[in-house]
Amino acid sequence: MLSNEVKDKLISIVTKENFDDSKIERLVYSYDATPNFQSMPDAVVSPRNTEEVSEILKICNQYGVPIVPRGSGTNLCAGTCPTEGGVVLLFKHMNKILEIDEENLTITVQPGVITLDLINAIEEKGLFYPPDPSSMKISTIGGNINENSGGLRGLKYGVTRDYVIGLEAVLPNGDIIRTGGKLAKDVAGYDLTRLFVGSEGTLCVITEATLKLIPMPETRKTMLALYQDLSAAARSVSKIIANKIIPTTLEFLDQATLKVVEDYAQIGLPTDVQAVLLIEQDGPAEVVDRDIKKIAEVCKQENAVSIQIAATEEEAMALRTARRAALSAIARLAPTTILEDATVPRSEIANMVKAINEITEKYQLTICTFGHAGDGNLHPTCATDARNHEEMERVEKAFAEIFEKAIELGGTITGEHGVGAMKAPYLEWKLKKEGIAAMMGIKQAFDPNNIMNPGKVFAKDSKKRVVMTR
């Protein structure tokens, strides 16, 4: 627990109303969306501005108190679970859109802004912010930046990193710095903006972000391609790209996912096929029409049994919403749902899907696979029960083999969920010892006292999901 001295100093900064070390409040922030990770923080602190963040970090750095910056807790790698206690930093007061600059096509926001609120605000002005994580209704921009969140539109438009052009950040010693800005070009020194994006709260606290916007696409069309052969669906993904077409969305759902999503959403998804590709294209009407026609031809050449094009925007929205609901739908199957992500080159999608199915059968598990097939990012999702220790052993072995296979195919252990605590034991498989050492050097330079989200990214010995307590 915090000493009375530290507690009094933090209260003097944020006032009593914004400091809470009650058991109930600490329990609320003892976990995120990652199954089987939990640890009690020592206190929950809600700063009202950047200056207060700076003063909080100075105190925590002086006394060696861990700091965990937290958004809405939708994290899936235990990245915001306070596994070493300390202070959870909330941004409920720092949740304002500060500026929408239509001349420079930028928006400047505080970290607590909800992603969908930002999207709605700029779309009213005919502008477009492409990153669209499935959690966007509740996730915050600060969380998106810390995890470099992706989404369904990542294939064509990229991920959060591609739209962050400037940051205000507080370093562990309390220094406030600004990086980047409303600039199309900036090569002055190291690119700290890109370093901080995706750093999972281990280097600094982000207190403001300037994001790039683009004009709203003129039109879009959505289609479903149905397959009785998983490999044919995977081949279609590679062939679409090989035909020099980059769809906005190119999503994959296997039959197991289709069944649970349809049972959940009741929108008429086909459940008698082995796989579905959800494909969307946007842009000028003539380009969209041409691309959708060509995509349909490619899918038919690869033995799609049916091609369905949404007749209305309502139909298209229902399909997108159903895809975003995949995790919620699968969560109804069992008490514990483990949503993973592994990424491979898109040319290896078929081999990766085949490997996941073989591993599922080997360990006798229920794993539904869906994901962003266009950029090779698959989400094998296991419905299980954490109370069944024997089954959880099999789950651990299965996911270790899935990560190993992804690396073997030229991929990585995570495409968008991050490393956090859950994947830290596997990071060396991807980066090797030398890569880990280089990253630790950066961490040491910024955070010599290791107060920023300690216990994340860098591995401990165990390769198991464990219930952490404090």
Explain how this protein is built.
- With 470 residues, the protein is α+β, with helices and mostly antiparallel strands.
- It has 4 domains: 4-89, Uridine Diphospho-n-acetylenolpyruvylglucosamine Reductase, domain 2 (2-Layer Sandwich); 97-215, Uridine Diphospho-n-acetylenolpyruvylglucosamine Reductase, domain 3 (2-Layer Sandwich), CATH 3.30.465; 219-329, Alpha-Beta Plaits (2-Layer Sandwich), CATH 3.30.70; 333-419, Alpha-Beta Plaits.
- It has 15 helices and 19 strands.
- Strands 12, 13, 14, 15, 16, 17, 18 and 19 form an 8-stranded antiparallel beta sheet that branches. It has a 5-stranded antiparallel beta sheet with strand order 5-6-10-8-9. A 4-stranded mixed beta sheet has the order 1-2-4-3.
- A hairpin with a 5-residue loop joins strand 8 and strand 9.
- The longest helix has 20 residues, at 389-408.
- The protein is globular.
- 50% of the residues are buried.
Shape: globular
Mean pLDDT, to the nearest integer, reads 93
Number of strands: 19
Strand content: 15-25%
List unreliable stretches of 5+ residues. Answer: 462-470
Major sheet, described briefly? 8 strands, antiparallel
* Multimerization state: single chain
Q: Output the CATH class name of the largest domain.
A: Alpha Beta
| Computed structural class | alpha+beta
Give the helix tally.
15
CATH architecture of the largest domain: 2-Layer Sandwich
* CATH topology value of the largest domain: Uridine Diphospho-n-acetylenolpyruvylglucosamine Reductase, domain 3
Query: What fraction, in percent, of the residue positions are helical?
Result: 25-40%
Number of separate domains: 4
* Rg, nearest Å: 22 Å
Report how far the terminal alpha carbons are from each other.
10 Å
